[in-house]
């Protein structure tokens, strides 16, 4: 039903799953080499499907946690990153892998990385399912990127429009009339 609101599919479920396998292997190789037991920190809520897809493929020791930060209202960045829910685990002297659904302006990741460094983390990396470099206002890149997307508002696979469409199993663009 909600799939009827989609104008075009940018990334199919199969494409996303295949890319998650590749990313998981790459991340696993890097952490095996470092010998760290990282905390995999999902930024709620958008990262949940992507994080689930990734971590089930990790064979190295890791812990998981979640944080909720918010800088969005509708489709516009309001440039104010707020912590709505902090992590449960202590991150001092730990390696952190932040899991994001999308990096857009880069403001969220800049603030989150700064916060982890201030808390005494040893190493902070980020894996993002989507990267929208055309919208960047901060100089920041993820360490691992699933796909680059054009400057369009995308939904699905965790990404919402006014809290809906997160449960779509693919990434797509909504029909223009949905925004009215
Ligand atoms: O690079 P930026 O411009 O900072 O944007 C990226 C952030 O925006 C979205 O979060 P949102 O606040 O919409 O929360 P959500 O995951 O609950 O949808 C997304 O999940 C990223 O965290
Ligand atoms: N759902 C959604 N959230 C975003 N946050 C930043 N960019 C986007 C986007 O394209 N879609």
TrEMBL record:
One of its GO terms (biological process) is purine ribonucleoside salvage. The gene is hpt. The keyword Metal-binding applies. Purine salvage pathway enzyme that catalyzes the transfer of the ribosyl-5-phosphate group from 5-phospho-alpha-D-ribose 1-diphosphate (PRPP) to the N9 position of the 6-oxopurines hypoxanthine and guanine to form the corresponding ribonucleotides IMP (inosine 5'-monophosphate) and GMP (guanosine 5'-monophosphate), with the release of PPi. Gene3D superfamilies: 3.40.50.2020. This is Hypoxanthine phosphoribosyltransferase. Residues 13-161 form the Phosphoribosyltransferase domain. It comes from Holdemanella biformis DSM 3989. Its EC number is 2.4.2.8. The lineage of its organism: Bacteria, Bacillati, Bacillota, Erysipelotrichia, Erysipelotrichales. It catalyses: IMP + diphosphate = hypoxanthine + 5-phospho-alpha-D-ribose 1-diphosphate; GMP + diphosphate = guanine + 5-phospho-alpha-D-ribose 1-diphosphate. It is found in: Cytoplasm. Transmembrane segments: none annotated.
